[in-house]
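Worked example 3 (structure in, sequence out).
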């Protein structure tokens, strides 16, 4: 399990630092602050964030909508526009690149938290089979008031418990309100169903016989 990593793209550094402080108070990991298009793409490549908070009006020839378009076309991660502009033209332009949210400045810490959690939740919902996609290398699991990131490679095994699934890692156990088949549709093939109620990460298997794995 690890913290959710967030990249901030904002050229007003006072606002960016305030946002970074709010995010850290909420338990997120801020992996960087970019002030223009080139820095944003470079940090996405280097840090592999789970979500980007993206100002529309940023420094340089390319604006936040250009960054959003590149994320949509080339990367598999959600992003939320943050802006002082809520006019019809700006919103119309923003919608074309399919953001996961739109926050109008100024906003409070609770607004930021709500927008992020909804974006992560919606992005993590299984799409129709013909358009199905996975979020990088992890699941997001809701616990208390946060969504925790659990890497596929950390999963040891899973157990079906009716409408719930227990996911076991080396660090802890997670209860997810989904049947095991829905989870298996999201995870890679290395996590295999060996029994009606059990699935195992084959990369973690040391030995098998007729009674145990």
């Amino acid at each position: 399990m690890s913290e959710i990593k967030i990249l901030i793209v904002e050229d007003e550094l006072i606002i960016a630092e305030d946002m970074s402080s709010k995010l850290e108070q909420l338990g997120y990991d801020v992996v960087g602050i970019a002030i223009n298009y080139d820095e944003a793409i470079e940090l996405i490549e280097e840090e592999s964030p789970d979500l980007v908070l993206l100002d529309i009006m940023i420094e340089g020839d390319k604006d936040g909508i250009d960054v959003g378009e590149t994320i949509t076309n080339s990367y598999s991660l959600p992003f939320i526009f943050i802006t002082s502009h809520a006019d019809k033209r700006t919103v119309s332009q923003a919608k074309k690149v399919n953001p996961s949210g739109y926050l109008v400045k100024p906003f409070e810490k609770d607004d930021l938290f709500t927008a992020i959690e909804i974006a992560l939740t919606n992005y993590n919902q299984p799409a129709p089979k013909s358009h199905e996609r996975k979020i990088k290398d992890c699941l997001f699991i809701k616990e208390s008031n946060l969504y925790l990131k659990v890497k596929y490679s950390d999963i040891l095994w899973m157990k079906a418990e009716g409408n719930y699934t227990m996911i076991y890692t080396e660090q802890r156990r997670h209860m997810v309100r989904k049947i095991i088949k829905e989870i298996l549709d999201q995870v890679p093939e290395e996590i295999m169903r060996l029994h009606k109620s059990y699935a195992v990460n084959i990369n973690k298997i040391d030995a098998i016989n007729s009674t145990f794995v």
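Notes: The CA atoms of residues 100 and 119 lie 5 Å apart. The chain has six helices and twelve strands.
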